[in-house]
Amino acid sequence: SPRSPSNGSSRKLSVDEMYLSDTGGQYLDGTTDITRTVHWGVPTPLQKEAYTRVLMGNIDLSRLVFPPNTAGGVVESFARRALWDVGLNYGHGTGHGIGNFLSVHEWPVGFQSKNVPLTPGMFTSIEPGYYRDGEFGIRIEDIALVVEAQTEKPFLTFEVVSLVPYDRNLIDLSLLSPEQIRYLNAYYETIRARVGPELQRQQLDEEYRWLQRSTEP
């Protein structure tokens, strides 16, 4: 099949480029769909800025507080704004519903114009990206649960439930707002609190050390 590796089409990985890893699994208590982009060497200024702006869009939509009965299509542009600011964009959807041990792309939840209003209990992906043909691709995909916000009137927000650090090597902190940095630090604290003890329980020492390094404030 075209997806099988072959000597003609395969090449060695190097530390000089970006890698996009779209991962997921079916578990009895849920379905995961998580994408991370990494660079193990020295990213170019454009790669770093593009990655940071994709992350900014991911954060801006994830921390958004919005009225009940809001459809995903109404708030979708929050994931694109940081890219739009410098004339960049991406050509795919910003997110899709995720079933509980069912479909990974599950109708009718999501951020397209024909998706239903967001209500508490729904799971959706939040996945802005940026691509340059023949050069590199970036996508940062998390799973978020729609929850009630801590507001006087019952508004809604998202709780990100995928607990995987972002690549520090690709983040230009000077572009982030204080609110975005606060969000990132709170997310990293959550990852440490929930994933750290499990890694220790399984005696995965190297993985635990990696997690601590990757979630430093």
Automatic annotation (TrEMBL):
Residues 9-147 form the Peptidase M24 domain. Pfam families: Peptidase_M24, Peptidase_M24_C. Keywords: Aminopeptidase, Hydrolase, Protease. Transmembrane segments: none annotated. InterPro entries: Creatinase/aminopeptidase-like, Pept_M24, Peptidase_M24_C, X-Pro_aminopeptidase_P. GO terms for molecular function: aminopeptidase activity. Residues 154-217 form the Peptidase M24 C-terminal domain. This is XPP2 aminopeptidase. It comes from Steatornis caripensis.
